[in-house]
Amino acid sequence: MSIMSEMGTSTTASGAMDPAHLRAVLGRFATGVTVITSVAPDGQRAGVTASSFNTLSLDPPLVLWSLSLKAPSLSVFRSGPHFAVNILAADQAAIALQFARPAEDKFRDIATYEGVGGVPLITGAIAHLVCSVVRRDPGGDHELYIGQVVDAVHTDRSPLVYARGGFGHFAPLS
């Protein structure tokens, strides 16, 4: 018996990749949890929970993340010249859920302050990276955002972690 047969199949009967299976496989990769925020030129704010965040380059300082083309906030992210990556603390799972779900005002009852370019920064997050948008590129059913970091701050609190469809916390190995 092969390892692949022990782990399950990745394709449907038609030979196409099964999205549910792929999601389960990708869920085995633990990530930090971020809320990406932006503000449109008209002042409309947007925020989404994203685990698709990653470092692209240290010199120049570039990061990337992706947003679903079906996201109601897509127009705000497309029009805003800046975005912020709010890296959430272990005690901020409720904030991650609030920004992950559809809502008219995702910022309701969330304490924020303004960063460079007026982007909302979530109070209590363990780190903030404010970025100027360098590129927006198509990526299947998502749009890829590349930003140059123009401001970055952090604390030493513990991060919120996401894996297998649930939240957890980081515990270093002894």
Description:
- The strands form 3 sheets. This protein has a 7-stranded antiparallel sheet.
- The mean pLDDT is 91.
- It has helices at 3-7, 19-26, 74-79, 93-100; strands at 31-32, 34-39, 45-50, 54-58, 61-68, 82-87, 112-114, 120-122, 127-139, 142-154, 160-163, 166-169.
- It has 4 helices and 12 strands; from the N terminus they run H-H-E-E-E-E-E-H-E-H-E-E-E-E-E-E.
- A hairpin with a 2-residue loop joins strand 11 and strand 12.
- The chain is of the alpha+beta class.
- 16% of the residues lie in helices and 42% in strands.
Task: Briefly summarize what is shown.
The chain has 174 residues and is an alpha+beta fold. 16% of the residues lie in helices and 42% in strands.
